[in-house]
Every structure is written in C-alpha cells, then in structure tokens.
Amino acid sequence: MWQAKPRLDATTLKFGAVYTDHMLQVSWKDGLGWTAPSIDPLGPISLHPCAQVLHYAVECFEGMKVYKGKDGQLRLFRPEMNMDRLARSAARLTLPKFDKVELLECIKELVRVERDWVPDAEGFSVYIRPTMIGTHPFLGVGPTREAMLYVILSPVGPYFPSGLKPIKLYVETENVRAFSGGVGNYKIGGNYAPTILPQLRGSHLGCSQVLFVMQDGKSKGGLVGESGSMNIFFLIRQEGESGELELVTPPLDGLILPGVTRDTVLKLARGFGDMKVSERPLHFDEVERASESGRLLEVFGTGTACMIQPVVGLVMKDSEITVPFDGDAAKHWLAKAPGTAALPNSSSDEPLSLCGRL
Ligand code: COI
C-alpha cells in the first residue's frame, strides 16, 4: 500500500536524490491529442522496449525551482521562461505542442499538493523537473507519434557536494558540447550524457565540472562555451587607463543554453550600472592574459540547479588559472540585487514580478 515518505532534514539534502510523493503525468497520441492530466503517487513508468526515447534520445526537459520565502509564501522563479524553452526543445525533437499556460497551472497544482516538502532553509528549494519523452514503439527514425509529459519534484540543496563553496572547472578542449547548426541551445537529454566522460577526466584533477573550450583555429586557447551543467561568467578588468569592469558571458549564438539564471544575472548586472555587461565571444587566451596581469577578478557559473556557483580554478592538463575570489559569490551578488520584483519579464519591458506566487 502507498505511504507518504518521511520528511528529511532539509539541510542534509543532496541534489536530486530525494523525490516528493506525487508526480504529474499526461500522455499524447497523434490524432487524439493530450489525455487529461493526473497527479498520482510517484512510481515507475511503463515503456515499450522500442519506445523512441530509449533508442534515439527523443527527450527534452526543464529545470525549475519553487522557493519558500521568509513570508512563508511559495514562489516559482520565472516559470514562463521554462515553459517557452520546453516548447522550443519539444518542437526541435518533433515532440507535441502543449498549452504553456495550462502546463504551468498543472505544475502549480502539483506544487500545492507537495507544499509541505518545500524547505525553508536558505539555499534550499524544491527542484521541478518537467520531462517530455517520445514513447512510440518504433525503431525507424521518424517523427513522434506518441509522447508522455511528466513532472517530478525533488527537494534540494546546493548542486555541488561542496555546497556554495567555490569549485574548480576542468578546461575541456578535446570534446565539444555543441557545434554550429547543432542543438546546444536546446534543453535535451542528448546534450548532457556526452559531458559525463570529460567531467570524469576533470574529477581526477580535483574539478567538479568541465568548461568546454572549443578550438576555433583563430586563437591558441579556443572559444569559451559553457560548463556541463551551467552557463559561465567572467568578471574582467579591462586593460588601459579606464580599467573598466566588464562582466562577460558567451552570446546566445546557437551553441549556448539560454539559461534562466543567466538571463537574470545579465538583467541584474545591467541594472547595477557599475560595469559593462557583455554577451560576446570570449577566447580563452583573453582569460589567460587577464589572469596573468591580475585582471581576472571573478568567475562563476549560473543555472537553476547550481544557482550562482563561484569558481576558483580553471584547470588545464599542465597548468591552472587561479581566480582570486574571496567570498561567497551568491551572497555578494544578492547583496547588490535590487530585488526580483524590479526585473523586467523576458517578453516585455514593463516592470513586473519575476516570481509566480502560488
Ligand atoms: C538545471 O540547472 O536545471 C539543469 O538542468 C542542469 C542539470 C545538470 C541539473
């Protein structure tokens, strides 16, 4: 008989290891459309061994979070952006269209059912994982005829076992994460599995993640991309008399995942008004030169799972760049932030709250 799981002490939570009691699910068939969504006890799903997802990685997903505020209210962080991105990823894989407003309402209902699971410790939340898979049992490579959309919830703490403490990244130049004309800008499972082996190489050198740097034939170091689980930012003091501060992240040129946290940091940093904020190609040589002359001030990753993750080392096979960051990046940025309500929504210039209150 089904029984609710016992609650755990929030502060001991590891990322992605505990799930709440229920899941949302809804199925789709070509010609018939979507079934009615249901919220059921979390449990295994049954798939035909020939389901497209198992052979051709017909799968896309989202990462969202719900936080409990100091006022006890639950808030989703910029959830419309996740619905938009899921729709784009699904379209790229020929997975079916869905009503973004309705899906968000269903997710809110699931969160309401599981509201007791949302931790109130700082830095803790419930991670929401909407997932869409091609379930059609067919070994030919062709458009999806049957699909399933499900949403599971996982109470989480920081993504990396070190917490929000700074990590090192392994500079990966042999394997690429994305390429021009590819699918690097979609949130699909197929973009993540190939990052695990390079990550393992880096872990032998004390690194928690990889930073993909793509050889482009134009520079010795190559072009900075993103990390296996996060977008990447560099705070650099420019050369010359002005010594201007510049916050740089690679542009959304088709190779980079359009991260919700990335977008948030860009909007907040532009609002600070005390630094130049650039989305531009960044060659690794520039990072090395900045480090050599003491102008590389800060490096951090951004992502829903990892939030804002300080980076203190960029490790190569035979050398290492040390980043002179001395503190807790998340707190440092939060202290400067004017509050999320002051941020513009992605699709409008009107100031409005980023947080969907439940
Ligand atoms: C997220 O940040 O939500 C992601 O999907 C990254 C994943 C590696 C956990």
TrEMBL record:
Cofactor(s) this protein cannot do without: pyridoxal 5'-phosphate
A molecular function (GO) term: branched-chain-amino-acid transaminase activity
EC supergroup of this enzyme: transferase
Residue positions, PTM N6-(pyridoxal phosphate)lysine: K187
Family annotation (CDD domains): BCAT_beta_family (cd01557)
E.C. number(s) listed in UniProt: 2.6.1.42
Keyword Amino-acid biosynthesis: yes
Any one GO biological process: amino acid biosynthetic process
Keyword Transferase: yes
Keywords: Amino-acid biosynthesis, Aminotransferase, Branched-chain amino acid biosynthesis, Pyridoxal phosphate, Transferase
Recorded family membership: Belongs to the class-IV pyridoxal-phosphate-dependent aminotransferase family.
Protein's UniProt name: branched-chain-amino-acid transaminase
Species this chain originates from: Ceratodon purpureus (Fire moss)
